[in-house]
Design a protein that fits this description.
The chain has about 200 residues and is of the alpha+beta class. The chain is built from four helices and six strands. Strands 1, 2, 3, 4, 5 and 6 form a six-stranded antiparallel sheet that branches.
Length: about 200
Amino acid sequence: MNETDAVGTPQTGGTVSWTGRYFEDFTVGDVYRHPLGRTVTATDNSWLTLLTQNTAPLHFDTHYASQTEFGKPLVDSTFTLALVTGQSVTDISQHVMANLGWDRVRMPNPLFEGDTVYSQSEVLAARPSQSRPDVGVVTVRTVGFTAEGRIVITFERTLLVYRRGHGPRFADVRPEWDPRSLAAAGLPVEESEPS
């Protein structure tokens, strides 16, 4: 609920929610449990597989996959990598200048349609960039796991993260409460005097 002033007009200020870590915020050994889980659907799996022209029927042909040791379609591993990387952005790379790469990508257990994936990252290294004074180099190990705790992916990722006070700024846009918006929100509308 928005705060309002004495006459009921919503305030245009407010506190900006979490905007991510800058280089100075990373400490080796810190572990960040990423807040959002995601249930993988059959559509996620088949669309990503077909979008990337992966022709392995194990990912999109239920009849074919039923004849494998898994008995059902496996989630495309590149989807798993993209999903878990995406889950980590709010904590790791909201202020990324560049992603330098992934190393030691491993999938120790299968991921299936209908599984819900959660993730966490541990800071392995953080050092100032030698060639770019406005960023630092951060390396993390990220682990993706199901609601049951089964690890489905691990990887190390190295990236350049802006130092505080550098890089792009988020927009500072605030709502303009015109009479139509006030009325739509059920708030009092000041009557203008006829001229």
